[in-house]
């Protein structure tokens, strides 16, 4: 039974569970998803300190000439108390002395031989960075399900956290199917074809944070397919393409079923890419994508990306969209739940002129895709659409509205 696109995404969201966890040094955790909430064990900054190179002063001394005989540097642990009629020179990041009410930047005072003259206006606490104003002790500054980036690592380091518990890396195994396929590093005859899907699955999965392994290209026989499957079963996801349609040599599903695949999705009501199968053998997720290159790319972006996000432990595993408008009129065939690929310039969406399922090259130029319903025949210039980005991640913790509705 064909599943709708939304049903298929829903099955992925409910049947796939995050991978187990491991503990990593924070520098090794980039791109991983945190398994537990992290609570600040101390204030950041730890102490009230100066935001400027300047002078620690009393507000009552505004417009006065005050004496200044001491300096506090970053890294010092000052014990003095600031008295009225005096100022203490202080550097950025240095702890403020007892009694300090504000910092006046160096450029705002007049330096004289026997002291400094302060400006007329000095605001309470001005240029003082208060303890805990960045991260307050006891607050949660990182949530389970968040993906770690370089800035998360800065927050972790600032709390003196050296190791963190994250979901483990996803292992992806890829193999092609088809007697006609040859590897891209060999010479081929005019009637032969390079396997372009496998290198694409491998590199895209790597880009999405997985470790990847190429098994081989399997011949179109049950035995060869079973051999390839057996040698990839230690992976978390096996991605194949081809042999899933109704051709005489389309044995992919049969081979996986022989080895115990539980089918979650048999085929999807989508153009291109209807013959897409998603299943499980024990804990390994199986994704059999169509052989047609563009169909396999589109379905990778819609479904494999969703699977990777769910396995990664991310709490925002749903696709989200960017609202944009159509650049110029574009006709579609209609009659199907379909995907329209296009480029996006930050303002408008321009559908790609050529985007046939068997093509390889269009996806190079696709920044995003639209999902459209069978009733849509034209995407009119200026009409509002929801684009699912391809070249970057735009995600949500709830199912967003993915289909675009035509304005006519
Ligand atoms: P199939 O579903 O196996 O009948 O394949 C459909 C079409 O996709 C055929 O034209 C295949 O030659 C082509 N194809 C299948 N696998 C690949 C691949 N890995 N790379 C490029 N084209 C492929
Ligand atoms: Mg084939």
Structure description:
With 408 residues, the chain is an alpha/beta fold. 16% of the residues lie in helices and 29% in strands. It contains 6 helices and 33 strands. It has helices at residues 5-15, 150-158, 197-207, 222-230, 252-258, 293-312, and strands spanning 2-3, 21-25, 38-39, 49-50, 54-57, 65-66, 71-72, 88-90, 102-105, 110-112, 115-117, 128-129, 140-142, 163-167, 171-177, 181-182, 193-194, 211-218, 237-241, 262-265, 267-268, 277-281, 284-289, 318-319, 322-326, 330-331, 338-344, 348-351, 368-372, 378-379, 384-389, 395-396, 403-404. The protein has a 6-stranded mixed sheet, sandwiched between helices. A hairpin with a 2-residue loop joins strand 10 (110-112) and strand 11. Helix 1 (5-15) runs parallel beside helix 6 (293-312). The longest helix has 20 residues, at 293-312. It is elongated. The site of magnesium ion has 6 residues, from loops. Magnesium ion is lined by residues 177-178, 220, 242-243, 291.
Largest sheet: 6 strands, mixed
Beta-strand proportion: 25-35%
Can you list the strand order of the major beta sheet? Answer: 18-15-19-23-22-20
Distance from first to last alpha carbon? 32 Å
Global mean pLDDT: 97
Q: What share of the residues lie within helices?
A: 10-25%
Q: Which ions, cofactors or small ligands are bound in this entry?
A: adenosine monophosphate, magnesium ion
Structural class label: alpha/beta
